[in-house]
C-alpha cells in the first residue's frame, strides 16, 4: 500500500489542504491519505491553537466526501508535542510493508533539517512537497538534500495556492467572506458553532 501521511494543525482545514491531498493521490498513485491533526505542533508551542477535538471535527468534515482521505487521531491521542518521528515509527510498526509519503508544503520543507531526528524521518518516508508562493521549491530541495543525505523529495504537481489557515482565521474573525475558500462542511460547522469569531 502507498500511504500518504499529512500532518498539520488544520486550524481550520482549507481547500489548499484538500487540493494537495487529492493531487498527491493522483500524481504519486497513493491508495490513501491520512490527515493527522497535531496535538501540539512543535513550531506552534507558544501560539494559541484551537482545541484538538475541534480541529479533528473540522478535518473530518473536510475529508468526508472523499473516499481516499481519512483522519487519524494518532497525534491528538499522544500527549505533549507532536513530533513527526514518533508518529512515523508508530506507522512503520503498524504497517511495515507500506510505502510511506509525508505530505508537506514548501514552507515546511525549508525547516525540515531542523526537525527532531530529521535523518531518521527522511529514512522512513518520501517527502511529497506542494509548492507555496514565493518559495523556490527546487532550490529548497537542493539545500535539504545537501544537509540530509539520502532524503527523497518529490514535488506534488499543483499550482501554488496563496491561502493559509492564518489568513482564513483573520477573515473569519472580521466576518469577511470565507465560504468559497473552505470545504463546504467545514464552513457549515464553523458558522453553526460560531468558531473563530472575534
Ligand atoms: P497556518 O497558517 O495556521 O500556519 P497552514 O495553512 O500553513 O496554517 P497547516 O495546517 O499548518 O496549514 O499546514 C499543514 C501542511 O499543509 C503544511 O505542510 C503546510 O505547508 C501545508 N499547506 C498549508 N496550506 C497550503 C497551501 N495553500 N498550499 C500548499 N501547502 C499548504
Plain-language structure description:
This protein has helices spanning 15-28, 52-63, 84-94, 106-111, 118-124, 137-147, 165-173, 184-193, and strands at 2-8, 32-37, 69-71, 99-105, 126-130, 153-155. With 198 residues, the protein is α/β, with parallel strands linked by helices. The protein has a single domain (2-163), classed as HUPs (Rossmann fold, 3-Layer(aba) Sandwich). It has a 6-stranded parallel β-sheet, with helices on both faces. Helix 2 runs antiparallel to helix 8 (184-193) and helix 3 (84-94) runs parallel beside helix 5 (118-124). The longest helix has 14 residues, at 15-28. The radius of gyration is 16 Å and the shape is globular. The structure holds adenosine-5'-triphosphate. Adenosine-5'-triphosphate binds at residues 8-11, 16-17, 20, 104-105, 107-108, 130, 132, 161, 163-166.
Summarize the structure.
The chain has 198 residues and is α/β, with parallel strands linked by helices. 40% of the residues lie in helices and 16% in strands. It has a single domain (2-163), classed as Rossmann fold.
Amino acid at each position: 500500500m502507498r500511504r500518504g501521511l499529512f500532518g498539520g494543525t488544520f486550524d481550520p482545514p482549507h481547500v489548499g489542504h484538500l487540493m494537495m491531498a487529492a493531487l498527491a493521490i493522483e500524481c504519486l498513485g497513493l491508495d490513501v491519505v491520512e490527515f493527522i491533526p497535531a496535538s501540539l505542533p512543535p513550531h506552534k508551542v507558544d501560539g494559541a491553537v484551537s482545541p484538538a477535538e475541534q480541529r479533528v471535527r473540522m478535518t473530518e468534515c473536510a475529508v468526508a466526501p472523499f473516499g481516499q482521505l481519512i483522519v487519524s487521531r494518532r497525534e491528538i491521542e499522544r500527549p505533549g508535542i507532536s513530533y513527526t518521528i514518533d508518529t512515523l515509527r508508530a506507522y512503520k510498526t503498524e504497517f511495515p510493508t507500506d510505502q510511506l509519503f509525508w505530505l508537506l508544503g514548501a514552507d515546511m520543507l525549508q525547516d525540515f533539517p531542523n526537525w527532531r531526528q530529521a535523518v531518521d524521518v527522511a529514512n522512513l518516508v518520501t517527502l511529497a512537497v506542494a509548492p507555496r508562493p514565493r518559495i523556490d521549491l527546487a532550490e529548497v530541495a537542493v539545500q535539504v538534500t545537501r544537509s540530509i543525505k539520502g532524503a527523497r523529495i518529490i514535488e506534488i504537481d499543483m499550482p501554488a495556492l496563496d491561502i493559509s489557515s492564518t489568513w482564513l482565521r483573520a477573515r473569519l474573525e472580521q466576518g469577511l467572506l470565507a465560504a468559497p475558500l473552505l470545504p463546504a462542511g467545514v464552513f457549515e460547522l464553523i458558522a453553526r458553532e460560531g468558531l473563530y469569531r472575534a
